[in-house]
Structure formats: structure tokens, C-alpha cells
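FORM 7B: Structural annotation worksheet

SECTION A. Query
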Amino acid sequence: YYDNSNDRLNIRDTASIYLHQNTSPYNSVDSAKTVIDSLSFSGLCFFNNTPNGKYYIVVKTRNTLETWSRNGGDSVRKGAVKSFDFTSDSSMAYGDNMIKSGAKYCIYSGDVENSGNIDLTDIVEIFNDASIFLTGYNPTDLNGDDISDLTDILIAFNNSTNFVTLISP
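SECTION B. Predicted structure
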């Protein structure tokens, strides 16, 4: 949803944030939902059930590729404020699994099926919604302009031809 001409997101969007252990089997230990602000690119989460330790921060939204934080995870302290900026460098994501747009690194859009990869299934779903001119807040609107159209199909198509897929430990 990033608009690099205005250095902002096109819309505010809800994200689910999970903390996973940084050792196998990488179990989820806590989660929170937040709204990512379109200007600051930030959201506030509270993890009240998390013991002190190192964790992977995992981001999921309605149509982006699930993205894990950098290799090894990050320290989290119960009750403490933790800031983590995915946009500053691709290395902030596990396997550098982000794309640069303008001055920011962004999570890949197009995984409308939330399957862990952007593929033909996602493209077909976006195409079907675009063919009926679906409007509003929906998973097949990848660029956040409130309509599923050719632009959204092209975003998913380009990511699928680059074999964009979930990278996690």
C-alpha cells in the first residue's frame, strides 16, 4: 500500500502481530492486533503474556505476505516498550524478504489467500473481484485505493513471477 510519491501508506490497515520463540519449533507465545498508521507506519501492540526473552516478530495482514523479523529475533521485556522498524532496511525481515519502494522497505502485497506465497490462486481471486469492480476494504485491493482492478492484478502478478514466498526459520 506504499505510495512513495507521498512517503505514506494509502490507507490505515489492521495487522496481527505475533511473537514466536526464537528456537525450534518457533511456537507462538503471544499476539496482538493493531492498526498501522498511514503516516507514521507504526502501530501499538501490548504483549502482556510474554516472558522476557528473544522472539521473532511476525506480521500478518489481510493481503500481505507473512513476514518474520530478522534472523535470531529481538529481545522483548514484559511490560517494556519495544520499537521495531521493518521499513529501515531489508535485513529487518528474516531472509531480507521485503521490497524497496521509494525510501522504505515494504512487506510484499498479494498473498490474498494467506497461503505463504503469491501465486496464480491469488491472481485469479483478484481478477475475479476486479471483473465485478469490487469496491471497499477488501483483501483483493492491494494498493489501498478501495477498488480491485488491473493495478492490483499487476502487483500480484509481478510478485508471483518473482516467486515471492514466505521465508521463516
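SECTION C. Observations
The radius of gyration is 16 Å. Residues 1-8 have pLDDT under 50 and may be disordered.

SECTION D. Sign-off
Analyst initials: ____
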